[in-house]
Specification:
alpha/beta, four-stranded parallel β-sheet, three-stranded antiparallel β-sheet, 6 helices, 26% helix, globular
Length: 180
């Protein structure tokens, strides 16, 4: 598998996958959460947001929150400060492989059906949305079993009780990342 890929994801799953496959963090979307609608805005206009201002905003969250380009909310869950997150963001932003980008949306954190449809309509070749139920009309959807009674996917990074795999491993990440 080619190691020089950039995995964009709206939450930590992208970083978990990169770590599982020993891939470098070549995307700024590591160790944070971006609300689904904002994530779709970000990846729709990725070049416009590259280098955009990151500004801290007031929040009642236990972690710092910032706005990218005045529009995209960044929940900096695994960072102590916005400055620490911005330094990591800029470093990883410079490493984006514009030729080998993979886009992942997780149906969580208020993801709506409209968000799923907007993501599906994006012109990116390598994309998948992990969903909590079967959506046959959404070409990029992959249904993760076991969340049908939930409103979305929660904690899919946790390991199965018996198997040495994570819940999100129902999806074939190796095949996805090997796509040309």
């Amino acid at each position: 598998m080619e190691k020089n890929v950039s995995i964009f994801c709206n939450n930590c799953i992208g970083a978990f996958v990169a770590h599982d496959f020993r891939l470098p963090f070549n995307s700024p979307t590591v160790n944070l959460m971006i609300p689904p609608a904002d994530y779709i805005e970000y990846i729709t206009h990725l070049q416009d947001y590259t280098g955009a201002e990151i500004k801290e905003i007031d929040s009642d969250k236990q972690w710092p929150v910032a706005l990218l380009g005045g529009k995209v909310h960044l929940h900096l869950i695994h960072y102590k400060t916005v400055q620490e997150a911005e330094d990591a963001w800029r470093r990883r932003e410079r490493r984006i492989n514009w030729e080998r980008m993979f886009f992942v949306l997780i149906e969580t954190d208020g993801c709506t059906y409209d968000d799923l449809m907007r993501f599906d309509a994006l012109p990116y070749q390598h994309k998948v949305v992990l969903t909590h139920k079967f959506y046959p009309e959404i070409k990029s959807a992959f249904y993760i079993r076991g969340y049908e009674d939930k409103s979305g996917l929660i904690d899919t990074y946790r390991f199965h009780k018996v198997l040495p795999t994570r819940k999100y491993d129902q999806f074939n990440w190796m095949k996805f990342l090997k796509q040309k």
